[in-house]
Design a protein that fits this description.
Distance between the termini: 36 Å
Number of strands: 30
Shape: globular
Structural class: mainly beta
Radius of gyration: 21 Å
Largest sheet: 8 strands, antiparallel
Helix content: under 10%
Strand content: over 45%
Length: 368
């Protein structure tokens, strides 16, 4: 059940005592695990399946819609303030920022792609158009935010049928857009942001070597799709804008000759190819874990934690470089993402078929 709190309490929960000081180690990734979620002021903002923005407070675990209107049922997008702020939503200096795609035709009949950047008061009202990103209609997808900038991909269709992938950023203070050049040219190009370390953003670039024309009658040959699907790995320097090669350690890249996924956080790089996992420490040390899949994980409180189910789960103790068992005693929990660590407890987020997201603060028993 979603607990509705009064607007006065909502403002107290959301408003910090001063400006938010986003440090570089606090980079936030928008990806499969965090499509509309943003950590803010000891809690999390998130949009549900119909685009209503809510906030869950990790102290009380109360959840409320971002709407100040008394007795609002939160069912009418024309009235309720919680609607319309669901695309790449972040909070800076006690204002909510979000993207609004605005593709349109100009007076000459030319099709224009652009995205408007808006901000709103912390209760969802007082919306202001802050800036424009030309050339793209951004509807979400992978991105990474840190140090006052949001980095995202821009795919441009070429005359030869291929697409070219660029990385761009939007600076919320200067309201300017920067571009960092072409990353690759191929078919079905895309980018996943894996994290940031020492002023570099880690990029996993996906592409296919041949074009697939998808239609209603297309029969999917998964082995063929796998054979033409590949990854490149690069790093973007946030100070200079220079792009360099991200060299994947041979111990994991050649372990099973499979594509490697990675997550970068707190100085650690966790690599996994769906079968084995390699952890590279901030000091450059390596720990290899045979038979451990770390493709869907969070890194919190010195642990690599997978999606959790009730009962025993395997995790990695980063400090000691070893596998441990974590026991989730709460019943009837499956495929829960660990989205926070607060007051010595872990915060789980999982899908509820009725309420969309469900949050629960739990203890995890670590068994050596």
């Amino acid at each position: 059940m979603k607990i509705i709190v009064p607007i006065v309490l909502l403002m107290l929960l959301l408003s910090s005592c001063g400006s938010i000081n986003i440090q570089k180690e606090d980079y936030h990734i928008f990806d499969y695990n965090n499509q509309t979620n943003f950590y803010y002021n000891n809690g999390e903002m998130y949009a549900d399946n119909i685009g209503r923005l809510s906030y869950v407070d990790f102290d009380s675990m109360n959840t409320t819609y971002i709407c100040p209107k008394p007795n609002c049922p939160h069912t009418d997008s024309e009235i309720c303030s919680s609607y319309g702020m669901s695309i790449l939503t972040i909070a800076i200096d006690d204002r909510i920022y979000y993207f609004n795609p605005n593709p349109h035709y100009d007076r000459n009949g030319e099709f224009i792609e652009e995205t408007e950047v808006y901000s709103a008061s912390i209760d969802g009202t007082g919306r202001i158009k802050e800036g424009i990103i030309d050339g793209q209609s951004i509807i979400g997808g992978y991105a990474i935010y840190g140090d006052g900038k949001l980095y995202f991909g821009d795919t441009r269709k070429l005359d030869n049928g291929k697409s070219e992938l660029y990385i761009r950023s939007y600076d919320y203070q200067s309201k300017s857009v920067s571009e960092y050049g072409s990353m690759l040219e191929s078919y079905a190009v895309d980018v996943k942001f894996c994290g940031e370390s020492n002023g570099e953003i880690y990029l996993m670039l996906s592409y296919q070597t041949e074009e697939i024309i998808w239609g209603e009658d297309t029969e999917i040959d998964y082995e063929y799709v796998k054979s033409i699907s590949h990854f490149d790995y690069k790093k973007l320097n946030t100070e200079t804008g220079e792009v360099s090669v991200w060299s994947i350690p041979e111990s994991i890249s050649s372990a099973n000759n499979m594509d490697v996924y990675a997550l970068v956080k707190d100085g650690y790089i966790v690599y996994s190819d769906s079968k084995d996992t390699l952890v590279v420490t901030p000091e450059g040390g390596e720990y290899f874990f045979n038979g451990y899949d770390a493709c869907n994980i969070s890194i919190l409180n010195g642990m690599v934690i997978p999606y959790l189910n009730s009962g025993e789960n395997r995790a990695i103790d980063l400090k000691h470089g070893k596998l441990v068992t974590v026991n989730l005693k709460e019943e009837n929990i499956s495929w829960a993402y660990v989205c926070g660590y607060h007051e010595e407890k872990y915060v789980l987020r999982y899908i509820d078929p009725v309420k969309w997201y469900e949050y629960k603060k739990v203890d995890l028993e670590v068994i050596e």
